[in-house]
Amino acid sequence: MNQMTGIRTLADLKKKQEEVSARMNLRDKAENPASLVQVKVAMATCGIASGAKEVMEYLVEELDKRGIAAVVTQTGCMGYCFAEPTVEITLPEREPVVFGYVNTAKADEIIECYIKDGELVDGIIPQNYDTI
Amino acid sequence: MSQYKMHLLVCAGTGCHSSESNLVYEMLRDEVERKGLASEVQIIRTGCFGFCEKGPIVKVLPDNTFYTQVKPSDAREIVDEHVIKGRSVYRLLYTDPETKEHILDSKHMGFYKKQLRIALRNCGTIDPENIDESIARNAYQALGRVLTAYSPQETIEIIKQSGLRGRGGAGFPTGLKWEIASRNDADQKYVVCNADEGDPGAFMDRSILEGDPHSVLEAMAICGYCIGATKGLVYIRAEYPLAIKRLKTAIAQARDYGLLGENILGTGFSFDVSMKYGAGAFVCGEETALIHSMEGKRGEPSNKPPFPAQSGYLGKPTNVNNVETLANVPVIILKGADWFSAIGTEKSKGTKVFALAGKINNVGLIEVPMGITLREIIYEIGGGIKNGKKFKAVQTGGPSGGCLTEEHLDTRIDYESLTAAGSMMGSGGMIVLDEDDCMVSVAKFFLGFIVEESCGKCAPCRIGNKRLHETLTKITEGKGTQEDIEKLRNLGSVIKDTSLCGLGQSSPNPVLSTLDNFMDEYLEHVHEKKCRSGQCRNLLYYVISPDECIGCMACKRVCPTHAISGEKKEVHRINQEICIKCGACMDKCQFDAISLLNDYPRVAETINN
């Protein structure tokens, strides 16, 4: 945390909420065509046990090496334990797509086909829940 | 960017796969190639859509058309009509069961999704180690609203109205619990978060803490405001290192922002959270045992009353809530009690998180509205039983719960219906068993767990469960008698009636519910010395087939107990009295003459005759 400013009132909190959610919207919904590719790796115990850490490190390194502007973040359990490790990719102006059974070979395929060319690859996990 | 204009997503989940989705995939690919569209249309295999009942599923992007029950022979029509002419194939569209209308855009059929994520709302969405992402998803807004707009009583009233009940297992109304704790005056009170998740196969609390720790911290602060506590404690097992790390990070970040600590949001309300580590004892999920463990004493339960709300941690009024229960609280405050109580059944409101495990295709963490049926969970969300086997039972509620069978598949799940069916909600472990599982062995497994985890304070649980386990072992070894079955039932009821705490009172449930639902298997073990699923090693018999055996003596030489008789070039025989079922003979035999049978006595006679 770098810009650590205290939240002293509810108004502060609301302001902070608007500010960070605007920033995340920009990233999440990728409404801005010039925005970055966003990569989320499910890093709960289940994911890590199936190798999510290696995949995350691989993604961070390889995206950098291949000169792709992307944000790689960790997140909690997406619930698809049968298909761990799972990775969610959001390309600019696209809906997020979740890929399952991602090892480093699959991650390479995802970078080359989906992230670079927008070509889908086998192993997509459709979102099977609604959230509030 | 991609040159593809259209994507056809073909479900390759196990459910759809078994209804030939792989053929659908190949036919579509061939058809697209034949029409020279391979450079424009991409066919992709996906994981389960959670709609296996209507499989195989084909979804067309970008127009979101959702085709159900697609047969390989439909591939040509989809390509000709949809891909080339841009017209939907109406007969394959999903039909709304109520209006009978075809749904063109799957965005309008969101209701097919059986899952609704409330407690897990941020898991898998936000970065749990970055408080800003939580704040963007409304973290601490509920706390802010409560502190500035509602009195503690009003807040408790909202929770009461919502119908939220404890998600740890027993289902005690949360609002009422808070109200009782708020009424007791003391100079110091405590809010405790019970993160001692102990059921085998359950990991929902861990996932919430790992994926969205702020939701729990915020709810603890709200509870603190309601009952008049300024201190919160999370009791978490040391076996959850990642959850501990994320929670610590979250607490530190919330403190830095001033969302925990002194004078939160300038309202004068102070609340801080610290952590206590448990050694991972099942009994410490029981609230009095948990409190004793936090105080540095042995993790043993004590008699209630006094309830923790009267005299809990360090003798002060204490409110203990489970992780999942707390994760629901901020949403209830923000969306209102009416919104929450509209979800679920008459007496059980909201959703429940289950950890689906066992012989099921889509093992995973699911959150479903109360009132869903087991059939929907197992066959739609779970994608059915692995390897096309037959469903036998589902174990809910962990070691304190019981088994539900085929006849319960259409029961609407809530606290009451599960209890009525001889099981319980529990913390949400759901272990699916198929025809290859032996129910006596399952009961024995859970009893073994209870024997390990019993704290030993009261005799019924300490001694009784040990005896139950011994009796079950005897039955699985083929030494059981009819009296043993009677003994299991009697002893089980006595333990239930006389144990001190909730753990002991529910400990014989795995035995009692399998006795109720699978008596025929017990009888088979006892009277026919047969285990139909072949799980009980002592009830399996190595038998040499006279037709295959050439009398090479190889098995005879390798047998460690000299149980095999027969001379060279004569058919060999295994003496079942001496055989220790090590399997060495079967490994050695090069003529596949030795097989493992589960109903030896009768079959063997025919072979030998």
Structure description:
Chain A has 132 residues and is α+β, with helices and mostly antiparallel strands. Chain A has 4 helices and 5 strands. Chain A has a single domain (10-117), classed as Glutaredoxin (3-Layer(aba) Sandwich), CATH 3.40.30. In chain A, helix 3 (52-65) packs across helix 4 (104-117). Chain A is globular and about 50 Å long. The model of chain A has no long low-confidence stretch (mean pLDDT 85). Helix content of chain B is 39%, strand content 16%. Chain B is built from 24 helices and 19 strands. In chain B, helix 5 (141-149) packs across helix 12 (323-335) and helix 6 packs antiparallel against helix 7. Chain B is flat. The interface between A and B is large, with 51 and 75 residues. Strand 5 (129-131) of chain A pairs parallel with strand 5 of chain B, so a sheet runs across the interface.
In a nutshell, what does this entry contain?
The complex is a heterodimer of chains A (132) and B (609). Chain A is α+β, with helices and mostly antiparallel strands and 132 residues long.
Secondary-structure map with pairings?
The complex is a heterodimer of chains A (132) and B (609).
Chain A lengths: L9 H19 L8 E6 L2 H5 L2 H14 L4 E6 L11 E4 L6 E3 L4 H14 L11 E3 L1
Parallel strand pairs in A: 1-2
Antiparallel strand pairs in A: 1-3, 3-4
Helix pairs in contact in A: 3-4
Chain B lengths: L5 E6 L2 H5 L2 H14 L6 E6 L11 E4 L3 E3 L7 H11 L29 E3 L13 H6 L4 H9 L2 H11 L11 H10 L6 E6 L8 H8 L1 H15 L3 E7 L3 H17 L3 E4 L4 E10 L8 H8 L23 E5 H13 L1 H5 L9 E8 L5 E6 L4 H8 L9 E6 L5 E4 L9 H6 L8 E6 L4 H15 L5 H18 L5 H17 L3 H5 L2 H9 L1 H10 L12 E4 L9 H5 L5 E2 L7 E2 L9 H5 L5 E4 L2 H9 L1
Parallel strand pairs in B: 1-2, 6-7, 6-10, 7-9, 11-15
Antiparallel strand pairs in B: 1-3, 3-4, 8-9, 11-12, 13-14, 13-15, 16-19, 17-18
Helix pairs in contact in B: 2-3, 5-9, 5-12, 6-7, 6-9, 8-10, 9-12, 16-17, 17-18, 18-20
